[in-house]
Please model this.
Amino acid sequence: MVEVPNSRLTRYIVLLVVTKVLKALGIFESYDILKVVHIVQFIFILKLGSAVILLFFQKPFSSGKAISKRQWIKLLKHAVFSCIISLLGFFGLTLCGPLRTLLLFEHSDVVVIALLAVLFTSSGGGPSKVGGHRYYTTALESKTLPPNKKTVLDTASEGHHDSALTHFLYTAIAFLGVADHKGGVVLLVASLCLKVGFHTASRKLSVEIGGAKRLYALDNLVSAVVLLPWVIVLSATTESKVESWSSLILPFGMIILSVMILEFYVEAICNTKMETPRCARYGAVALFLSALLLANFWTHPLTDQLRSMSKPAQQLSTEHVLSGGVIVSAVFFIMASSILSSPSKKGQKGTLVGYSPEGTPLYNFMGDALQHTSQSLPRFIKDSLKQILEEYDSRQIFYFLCLNLAFTFVELFYGVWTNSLGLISDGFHMLFDCSALVLGLFAALMTRWKATRIFSYGYGRVEILSGFINGLFLMVIAFFVFVESVTRVLDPPNINTDMLTPVSVGGLLVNLVGICAFSHAHAHAHGGKGCSSNDHGHSHHGHSHSEHSHGGHGHSHGMNANMRGVFLHVLADTLGSVGVIISTILIRQFGWLIADPLCSLFIATLIFLSVIPLLKDACEVLLLRIPQENEKDLNSALEKIEKIEGVLSYRDPHFWRHSANMIAGTIHLQIMSDVVEQRIIQQVTAILKDAGVNNLSVQVEKEAYFQHMSGLSTGFQEVLAMTQQMESMKYLKDGTCIM
Amino acid sequence: QGTIHPFRKTHKSVFGKLKQEFRLVTSDRRSWRILLFGALNLLCTGCLLMWCSSTNSMALTAYTYLTIFDLFSLITCLISSWVTMKKPSQLYSFGFDRLEVLAVFASTVLVQLGALFILKERCVCLPLTHTQTHSGRLLVGTFVALFFNLLTLLSVRNKPFTYVSEAASSSWLQEHVADLSRSLCGVIPGLSSVLLPRMNPFVLINMAGALSLCITYMLIEINNYNAVDTASAVAIALMTFGTMYPMSVYSGKVLLQTTPSHVIGQLDKLLREVSTLEGVLEVRNEHFWTVGFGSLAGSAHVRIRRDANEQLVLAHVTNRLLPLVSTLTVQIFKDDWTRPLLSGTLSSSPSPVPPLGPEGYAIPPSSSALPPLLSDPLTSTPSKPSSPPPEFAFDTPGRNVQQVVLPAAGHHAHGPYGGLGLAYGASPYAGMLSQGVARPGMPSSQSYRTAFGAPTLPLRFGTSNPLASQSQYRQYQP
Model:
C-alpha cells in the first residue's frame, strides 16, 4: 500500500480486515453446510435469520416514513433479484469451492466498474488500468485452467438431483459444454456482473426507501417471504438430508452474522469513513489472503462430523484442492484489484501553456482532442448520415455501398443456408471490396469538414489521399490476383462451375449499376465545377479511351481522385465478374481449364494499367507539383506579372493543387520603392485568380525590406546577449507585469 | 488531340530518366550498401515465399510481408539519398523532399494492405476446411527472416523511417510492451536501463512475430494443433497494423499539409508576438505545414494599420517567423488603402530620396511603442490591451484575430512625417537594432511587454525621442 493510513483510519481498517477474515470463514463454512442442506433452504434460512436480526436493530417499520404500495412492489422486485443473485452465487459456490468463489465473486463494485470501463471504453484511464485489466484476465485464465479434480458432471447427470432448479442449472452448464468448475466460474462471473448492476440500480430505491440499511433489512425480509412457499414445497416433497437441525444452528448463526450482517455494516461504515477505492483495496487483499490461508488449513471439522451421520464419504474426491493455478490467480487478483481500485489520475490531455492573471493554470487543448470528445456516437452517426445524403458524390457512394452490402449479405445468407463454401467465400470477398467503398465514403464525408487549426486549408486533401490509398489497394489486389493466376497457369485446378454463373451475373448487375451511377457522377461533377478555366478538360481527356475500352473512364479525369479510386474499384469488380462469366462459358463449352487463370491474368493487367494514371495524378498532387492543366495559364500569368508597372522581378513562385477545387500559391515580388504595395497585390491576385489560383499569398518586397532585414539580422549575436541579461531581470518583474 | 501521346512519350522518357537517376544514386558509395542489402532481401524473400507455399503456413506468409516491408524501406532509403541530390525544379517548386514522405506513406500503407489481405484470407478460409500446416521449414524460415530483418534494420541507416518512427506517436504494441516492462521493472529494478527506453517499433514487431511463429511451431509439433497457425497469422497481421498505423498517420498528415501538432505551441507563441508588433492589427489565413520531414513552410496574411509602414512590418514579421518557418510568404494587407490622404502622404509621394530610413523608422516609435504614450489619453493610437492577447480560438479555424480598435481615421495622418523624418534622419538603424532584435530573443509577448516596462528601456530610442514626438502630438491635436 502506498499511502500510510493515519491513526484515525487504522481502527476502521482493522475492523474491515477482521470482518473480511470472518466472511471468508463464513463462506468456507457455508460451503460445507451446502453439502447437506439444500441451496434454497440455505438461502431462506440466511435471509430469515438476517432479517430477524436486522429488524431488531434497524426497526424499519417503526422508524422512517411509511412505505407506499408502489414502493412495496419495487421492493418485491428488488428482493426477487437479490434472491436470484444469491442463488447463483451460492450455486457457484457449490460448483467451484469456497476459495474460487471468494476470488471471483467477492469483488468490490468499484473494481468491477473500473474493469468494465477499461474493457468497453478505451478511455477508462491510463495504461495502469490496462495493466490491471491484463492481470485480471490472466488471473481468470489461470483459474479456468483445470484444477486436478474429477468432474462432478458425470456423476451428477446420472445421479438424482435435489431439485428442478439444480437440475436445470446443471443441464444448462452441461449444454454449454464446459466442465462444471468452468461452468461455475462462468456462473460466478455472470452473477458478479449482475450483482454490480443490481447494486447500481438499487441505489435509487434505497434513497426512496430511506437509507441503504433500511432497504437491506426490508429486502431480507421480503426475500425470505418470497422464498417461503418454495421452501415449504421443497421440504414437503423431498426428504431432508439433515438429521438434526439443532447441530446446524451454531454454524448458521455464525454465517448469518459474518456474511450477512457484520460485513454489511462494516463496509457501510468504512465506505463513509474512507474513500471507497481504498476500502475496496484493503478489503479485497484481506479477503483473498484469508481465503488462501483458510483453503490451506481448512480441515473440514464440520463436514467430517456431518458426513459421519449423513452420507458415505463418496464426495471426498471432488474436494476442491488448492492448486498452483489458484494461488497464481489469487496473486493476480490481488494485484489487479489494487491497481484497478487505485484512484485514477486523470491525465490532462492539454499542455500547460501558462497561468492566467488569477493564477489558475491555462491549458492548450489541441483541436482534435476537443473534437473527439465533444460528440456522442448516435448523434455523430445521425449527423454524418445527414451530411452523406446532402452531397451528390457521397450519396452515390452511400447508395451503392448499401446495394453492395445487401447483395453481399444475401449471398452470405444463401451460402450459409445451402452450405455452399464458394458462395460464402465470395461473400467475404465482396465484403472486403466494400472496405474500399467505405474508405471513399469516409473521405467524401471528411472533405466537407470545416478547417481546423491543424488542417488549416480544410480537409479537401483527404480526398486525394484516399484516392491514392485506393489506388494502392487496387495495385495490391492486382498483384495478388496476378501471382495467384500465374501459379494456376502452371497447374490449372479443377473448378466447380455450378454456382459461379448466377453469382457472377448478380455481381455484374450490381456493379453495372455502380458504374452507371459513378460515371454519371463524374460527368456531373465535371460539368458543374470543372469549367473555371478554358482548356481544362481536354488536356486529360481520354488517353484511357485508346488504352482500354471502358467508356466512363474518360470522364473520371475530373480532379476528384477519391471518386476515381472508387470508380476504378467498381470497374475492377465488374471486370472480375465478366471474366468469371467468360471463363465459365469457356470451361463449360470447351473444357479449357486454363481459361480461368488466363482470364484473371488479363484482368490483373487491366486493373494494374488503369490504376497507374490515378496513382500518377495523386502522386503529383501530393508532391505539390504545379497543376498540369493550369501550367500554361500560370506561365503566362507569371509573364504578365513581370510586365506590371513597377514590378522588378519575382522569386519563389510556388503553385500547387491542394484539393479538387483549390489551387494554392505563394509568390514573392520585388517592386520599385515608389509603388503602392496594395495595388500590386490587387493586380497580381486578379491575374493569378484568372489562372485558377484561389488561395494566394503575395509577399511584396521593396528595397527597404532588404535593408530592414539586413539591419535586423546583423546585430543578432550581441542583442542575444542583451536579451539574456534582460531575462534575469524579467523573472523579477514577471509577476507584476502579467497583472 | 493526341492525348495518349504525351503520356506514352513521358513514359518512355521515364525509363530513360529512371536509368539516369539510378546512375546518379549509385555514384554514391553509401547506396551500394543499400543495393547489396536489397539484393539479399530479394533472395531471402524468394526463399521465404517458397517455404511459405511448401509449409502452407499463413503465419509465415504474414511474417514474410515484414521482409517485403524491409525491401520497401530500403527503396525509401534509396529515394531519400536521391532526394538529397536533387534540386527543386520548376514543376516541383518545393523540391523532392515530399517524395520521401510519400515513399514512407506508401510502404506503410502497402504493408497494412498486405496484413488486411491476410486477415481476409483467414476470414474466407475459416469456414472452409482446415488446411494442414507442415511445420517442416517453419522454424528455419522464421529464423532466416528474423536474422535478415534485424540485419537490415541495424546495419542500414534509414533516415526517413528512423525519423518517422521517432516522431510518430507510439504504436499499440509499443505501449503494451512499455507497460509490461514497467511493471517488470517494478519487480526487478536492474532491468530498467534495458527495458524502459522507447523500443524501436520495427525491431519490436520482428521479435514479436518471430516469437509467435516459434509458439506456433511448438504447438504444431507437440500437440498437432493446426488452428494456431491461423491465430498467429491474425496476431502478426494485427501487430503489423498496430505498428504501421501511427507511422502512416504521421506521414499522411504531412502529405495532407497539416500543421504538425508539436510545433503548434511554438507557432502560437510566435504569432502572438507578431500580432503585438507595432502596427499589426491581426494575423489571418495562416497556413503552416511541413514540406518534407522537418522543414516548415507557410504563409500568412497580416492586416496592418493604414498608417503603418508595410516594409518595416514585413521585415519584422519575417524576421520573427523565419527561424521556425523556412519557406515563408507574408502578405501585408491594408484596409482602404485607396484613400488618397494616407497613400499620398505615405509612400506614393514621388520623393527621389529612398524613404526607407526616416519614414521606415519614424512611425513605429512615435506611435505607441513607448510606455508613456500608451497611457496618454490624447494619442489617437489604439493602446495595446494590457491583458495577454486572447488565445487563438480553435473553433474558428485559420483565424488569428486580435481585437484591436481601428485607428480613428485620419488623426494620425496629421502626424508630421516630414518633421519626424528630419528629427530621426540621423539615426536610421541604431534604434532599430535594439528594438527589433531585442524582440526575437524574448519568449513571449508578455515578456515583450515586460521588457518595455523596464524603466531603462525607453532610453534606447534616444532620450529626446519620446518627448519630441509627444510634444509634436500635442501640437497637432485639434
Q: What stands out?
A: The two ends of chain A are 44 Å apart (CA to CA).
